[in-house]
Design goal:
Layout: H1 8-30, H2 41-52, H3 56-80, H4 92-108, H5 113-130, E1 133-134, E2 137-138, H6 145-159, H7 166-193, H8 199-219
Helix pairs in contact: 1-5, 1-7, 1-8, 2-3, 3-5, 4-5, 4-8, 6-7
Transmembrane segments: 12-37, 57-80, 92-112, 137-158, 170-192, 198-217
Keywords: Membrane, Transmembrane, Transmembrane helix
Protein name: DUF1275 family protein
Amino acid sequence: MFFQQLPNWIQLGAFLLAMNAGMINVMGLITVLHQSISHMTGNVSMFAIALSHLDYGMMLYLFLVTLCFMLGSFYSGFILGNSNLELGRSYGVPLTFVSLFILLCWVFLPYFPRYALLWGSAAMGMQNAMVSHYRGAIIRTTHLSGVITDIGLALGYIARGLKVEPRRLLLHFLILFGFFFGGIIATVFYHFFGINAFLIPAILTALLSITYWYLYLKRS
């Protein structure tokens, strides 16, 4: 089975990217706008509520949040050209942009909070689209609905006595706990540093980008 040889760098990368998204989402929720920016399901539901209340200002803003997430995914697809995870693709480029977008979010947040979170949404869209598949598995690092569904399915299969690839299940748990720990980290650091806590995911993605470029160039 492919997943029995799942490389450790993929597991670590998935954990760190999920942790990054967990930090960004929590800080989006606990800043002035209480806005989720790592996934769009709730925002689309909020758009429907705003539409029913004819709240045009909120409708426009939620539309822009969703659009920026989509544009982030668009740029990731344009840069990489493929969503299958493979060492040798230019993942350092979108990682650099993710770090830059989070940094811009931090810069603008004290002055233009709504505009600032649009950059955060674009960063999450770009990150989420970087890797969608690895040898048949769907990998998402900015939201957990699919991850938790896959964990539940795997546990159900185990209960029936069916075989489940352990490393595939481990990957899903790493994403789940990475997102969770990221939320804890963001909450603690936000308490002490306020919006400057946004610098932590910006630095994390910058370090991931540098590390990947080093491995990429060394491999070349």
